[in-house]
Design brief:
It is globular, with a radius of gyration of 24 Å. It contains 5 helices and 20 strands. Strand 2 and strand 3 form a beta hairpin. Strands 2, 3, 5, 9, 10, 11, 12 and 13 form an 8-stranded antiparallel β-sheet that branches. Strands 4-1-6-7-8 form a 5-stranded antiparallel β-sheet, with no helix packed on it. A 3-stranded antiparallel β-sheet has the order 14-17-18. The longest helix is centred in the first third of the chain and has 30 residues. With about 325 residues, the protein is an alpha+beta fold.
Length: about 325
């Protein structure tokens, strides 16, 4: 009789533990999506105007053609802050109209749990004509406040782990360009990327022409090391320069350590080994400085639209690689 009671007792404990584990799994999916293996994407839809989109004051998308219809999902883990992030849209139609009638831009933050497959959509900005629409329904712009990423891919208004701040509107002095921004508190398990902690760069906008040329020439020396390595087909010599970029992108996108370096090598070697592609050698006079609004990241560009590191073929096609620098201890570091 005592043995039977003990068996029943242990069987009850076992069932209780199974039930508790099941509940914990449900709670984990329901309450801790952001604390797991999270993937962030930014869905961008727009047409009818020239506009840029930035995340934490780094431009992630540029549209120069108002006749183009955009609809894309951009992975943005490598730009996200572990606590809160700022999203901006700015632009105009270059004809004096802040926002042409019929034009529209919409930003939606997509939060995905890589492990469970759960996916959530936070509609954060929707611009149409000259108005910003703030709707209470979840299929439109979410109003300011806190939101909970619940089970079954539902976003519930009220107490929650995500907070959407009010939309802020700003106009440039010439009033032909608008800026709409929104900050979102979205605590997650991504690390604080190195560029967030980087020292502020000089204010390039306030520099004289001579000072700007001097700064450009200094940055070009850091770029030329890469160009020289490619010209000599010595990929091994330049790979250490991409160490921070490769390491952080591995973490951001859930790759095994070393995967981004492998992909970068493959990308570069493909261009070097193909006789149809030729490296474009730049000089400092061929390029200009492009700096991000976060005052932490700077690039060299050959025009407002193009990276300077690239290969070209006989058809004029351009095969390029983005290189973005930050500054630390007096040295230029490739961060993206």
């Amino acid at each position: 009789m005592r043995i039977f009671k003990l068996k029943s007792f242990f069987r009850g404990i076992l069932f209780s533990l199974i039930a508790l584990i099941s509940l914990q799994n449900v709670w984990g999916e329901d309450m801790n999506v952001l604390q797991g293996n999270v993937r962030f994407k930014l869905n961008i839809q727009g047409h009818g105007l020239k506009y840029f989109v930035s995340v934490n004051d780094v431009v992630v998308f540029k549209q120069y053609d108002g006749n183009t219809q955009d609809s894309l999902d951009l992975p943005i883990n490598h730009w996200m802050h572990p606590e809160q992030s700022l999203f901006k849209v700015w632009g105009g139609d270059s004809k004096g109209n802040k926002f042409p009638a019929g034009a529209s831009v919409k930003l939606t933050l997509i939060v995905e749990d890589r492990d469970s497959g759960a996916s959530y959509q936070l509609s954060i900005l929707e611009l149409n004509g000259n108005e910003v629409y703030e709707r209470k329904e979840l299929d439109g712009i979410l109003k300011s406040g806190r939101y909970h990423l619940a089970s079954n891919n539902k976003v519930e208004f009220g107490k929650g782990e995500v907070e959407l701040k009010p939309i802020i509107k700003r106009e440039y002095k010439n009033k032909d360009t608008f800026i709409y921004s929104r900050q979102i508190s979205v605590p997650n398990q991504l690390p604080l990327w190195a560029f967030f902690k980087s020292v502020p760069l000089p204010d390039y906008r306030s520099m004289t022409t001579e000072e700007l040329i001097e700064s450009r020439n200094e940055l070009f020396l850091a770029y030329k090391v890469i160009q020289d390595g490619l010209e000599n087909e010595d990929v091994d010599s330049i790979m250490p320069l991409f160490a921070e970029r490769n390491k952080e992108l591995d973490i951001a996108f859930g790759y095994p350590s070393g995967e981004m370096e492998r992909l970068l090598r493959e990308y570069i070697n493909k261009a070097i080994d193909d006789p149809n592609w030729k490296l474009i050698n730049r000089t400092a006079n061929d390029v200009g400085i492009s700096f991000e609004q976060n005052n932490k990241i700077v690039s060299l560009v050959r025009s407002e639209r193009a990276n300077i590191l690239g290969f070209v073929n006989q058809s004029g096609l351009y095969y390029s690689l983005t290189i973005m620098f930050r500054r630390e201890n007096g040295k230029w570091i490739i961060t993206r």
